[in-house]
């Protein structure tokens, strides 16, 4: 993955024109970028807000981005940075309860409703992960980035990605709702 380069002047260089305008880029890539934003938040409305904020940051930097072929990486980085800022600023609105809700019914073979229940259980389990682990799992397995690409997007080492993803997968394997769904 190529990291987009921002400069204050283009120095007479011609920029690759993968997308002739910001609006053409947004029209072409919005569904994929929205899917990424949704995987970083628990609420679809928050995902749309997150994407809008990241796109606003991209719009401001549009003329300084030399390699428009690397825009997805730039926007993903903006999504993650914005989401990280939100995590740091957020107030805690979770609270402990004495009783846990009843688990979802155990999924069967090819029933679409049961497949959806398993999908929902997986997302609930992913949302229980710490924010950093969740971001790494999403980038590795939902965005299908390599360990090196994930490390680059998050600004961490490949070893950090490997160990954090390993711990996250261990937590997912131990999630009682998923173990019931897999039985």
From TrEMBL:
Keywords: DNA-binding, Sigma factor, Transcription, Transcription regulation. Residues 120-172 form the RNA polymerase sigma factor 70 region 4 type domain. Residues 26-91 form the RNA polymerase sigma-70 region domain. It comes from the Bacteria. GO terms for biological process: DNA-templated transcription initiation. The keyword Hydrolase does not apply. GO terms for molecular function: DNA binding; sigma factor activity. The keyword Transcription regulation applies. InterPro entries: RNA_pol_sigma-70-like, RNA_pol_sigma-70_dom, RNA_pol_sigma-E_actinobac, RNA_pol_sigma70_r2, RNA_pol_sigma70_r4_t2, RNA_pol_sigma_r2, RNA_pol_sigma_r3/r4-like, WH-like_DNA-bd_sf. It holds the Pfam family Sigma70_r4_2. PANTHER family: ECF RNA POLYMERASE SIGMA FACTOR SIGM (PTHR43133:SF50), RNA POLYMERASE ECF-TYPE SIGMA FACTO (PTHR43133). Belongs to the sigma-70 factor family. ECF subfamily. This is RNA polymerase subunit sigma-24. It comes from Streptomyces longwoodensis.
